[in-house]
What we know:
- The chain is mainly alpha-helical.
- It has one domain (2-275).
- The protein is 76% helix and 5% strand.
- The strands form 2 sheets. The protein has a two-stranded antiparallel ribbon.
- Helix 2 runs antiparallel to helix 3 and helix 5 (104-130) packs across helix 10 (249-269).
- The chain is globular.
Amino acid sequence: MKQRIITAVVAFFVLLPVLIFADTFVFPLGLAVCAVLSVWEMFACVGLKNAWIFTAPMYLIGAAFPFLIRYLPDLAAPVAIAAAVVWTLYAFTVLIFAHGKYSMESVFVASFSLLYIFIGFNAILFIHDREPGGRYLYYICFLGAWITDIFAYFCGRAFGKHKLIPAVSPKKTVEGSIGGTLFCILATVVFGVVVEALVPEITANIAIFAVAGLLIAVVSQIGDLSMSVIKRNYGVKDYGFIFPGHGGVLDRFDSVIAVSALLMVFSLFFNFFESV
């Protein structure tokens, strides 16, 4: 526990300048680093970390897209579609000509997972740059995910009696899940109220924040469990070791990825903030 707390504090002070300088190149650079590390962790998990014929293109895609979204946003969507099509054809071509050398299941799992992971990391940048009030809203990607995780843990320890999904995550409980959800809703609503009080030129739609808080809590836990399913399928405890006591990037940001993808889609249909 002591090691986890120390690592969390250090990670916070590393993440803080990235968030503070979100309007500069530091932000897409930080997301690109996370994406590249995620490629390594996912391919290592499925047993393909040395398969450069697959990992090299993914490193390039993961590193490039945050900068593409920030500096060439009009090209981001068509390039993303093109990249997905080209990658699919490329992966099938390699599997055909190197039949039996690589596990088709592992290639498919890694490809599908990294598509989802890339969407999640880049959604954070999309929210910050595109959504009205996005320079405030994107904090919810982190706040919602980590509040849910923290309070699910403590509520589970205090009140947990019924296992949630023991086959996937033996320590998670129904009571912890409910506690994390309630605190996430509260934190999300409070965040909206605080931003409205501190930024006079915008008003917060509190009802939207409340509904989003509920969805964030649910999706955050699904994101956590989905990454756990992959680890268990391949007999891996942690995706990496960059955060002692916490694991790798995917261990620490699995919920953030899911929440940011949800928020991106949600913000396309509903406005969290309105200009005064």
